[in-house]
Amino acid sequence: MTPQPNPQVGAAVKAADRAHVFHSWSAQELIDPLAVAGAEGSYFWDYDGNRYLDFTSGLVYTNIGYQHPKVVAAIQEQAATMTTFAPAFAVEARSEAARLIAERTPGDLDKIFFTNGGADAVEHATRMARLHTGRPKVLAAYRSYHGGTQQAINLTGDPRRWASDTGTAGVVHFWAPYLYRSRFYAETEQQECERALQHLEDTIVFEGPQTVAAIILETVPGTAGIMIPPPGYLAGVRALCDKYGIVFVLDEVMAGFGRTGEWFAADLFDVVPDLMTFAKGVNSGYVPLGGVAISGQIAETFAKRPYPGGLTYSGHPLACAAAVATINVMAEEGVVEHAANLGAQVIEPGLRAIAERHPSVGEVRGVGMFWALELVKDRETREPLVPYNATGEANAPMAAFGAAAKKNGLWPFINMNRTHVVPPCNVTETEAKEGLAALDAALSVADEHVR
Ligand code: PMP
């Protein structure tokens, strides 16, 4: 139900926002946030009557779209019966959410520690790894994003780390595979895989294996560019962790819950980590929730010895009720299979056809509902369309592309020189094609910057 446009209300919402809301990751006076009036399914709209197809799924979390009636009803019902209850108690919504998640996580990741989101899941996963091993260091990839809290931002490799990096002791970065811009002079996936694994093993050996508690990786790095790891890489990391007694943490905050066309991206590669973080898609972000799925061996460490950590809202009943409903909707409506099929049959061929028409598209990569287009000035040299970490004028070509997409009714995900195609996992074929057409048209703006 699209309400009637009401620019006056929109202006008031915007004025209060500008006066009092302090926005994340932003220079407060240089931003111009859209006042959003409503959202449903794959769309949202503003107070002026403009409607946008959301190819960002919010922050890549509305995996079943906005306002799914079954999830809204479950939240309402939970609110009517038990809005909240402290984490030390067994509560139906919480235990059912944990059961449904554990049923789907790979291997023996059968115990669930609930958090309020992804960053705190990463905080706790690394704490568990350090306590389990008694070692201080965590190895993380440069091209990664693990969250905005202190430890998580320091583990993060992308430029958002710079401004808040206090150089947390015990964080060591390494290069993970990225064939398009290979750090290893690789020309094939196999070379990239072998050399990245050798580089990681060298890092472990030179850091001192006895000091390395954990290796954390996004199963498929999301914010940093949706780089699908080459075949054998994650299995190779698993083997290195086993060889040196290191805890393997996979961060599935973005890649989990259907995004890649599997319940978890780890399933694509047949790997089982020791700890796996999740958030976002677990309940489509309707109420904040995240967590860590814990292996039997690590759970055992804390069987008789208390785990020193917790959160007031851990496993909040409203959030867990939303998770139960979301997981059930995904199962009943075949959302995971839909994401795999639509990705392979519509999104991938659509993006490849777009790449043929637009010289600004340097590479298309992805899987399921998790795709990136890397925009370049020159396909031969692969020079990015905008410089690394561009802001202001330097970012103008990407900003112009974004504005063109919005004019075409498409809300695009833009990060550096990339646009990600990450619609809800239950986006319909018609919607997906509509979005691809809008993207196609907007890319002509990017083409103007090609040499
Ligand atoms: N890990 C990954 C892989 C993420 O993509 C994100 C969020 N984009 C986080 C952690 C942090 O999650 P949150 O913002 O919920 O703290």
From TrEMBL:
It is an enzyme of class 2 (transferase). This is Adenosylmethionine-8-amino-7-oxononanoate aminotransferase. Transmembrane segments: none annotated. One of its GO terms (molecular function) is pyridoxal phosphate binding. PANTHER family: AMINOTRANSFERASE, AMINOTRANSFERASE CLASS-III. Its EC number is 2.6.1.62. Keywords: Aminotransferase, Pyridoxal phosphate, Transferase. It comes from Streptomyces formicae. The keyword Transferase applies. Signal peptide: none annotated. The lineage of its organism: Bacteria, Bacillati, Actinomycetota, Actinomycetes, Kitasatosporales. Belongs to the class-III pyridoxal-phosphate-dependent aminotransferase family. Pfam families: Aminotran_3. GO terms for cellular component: cytosol.
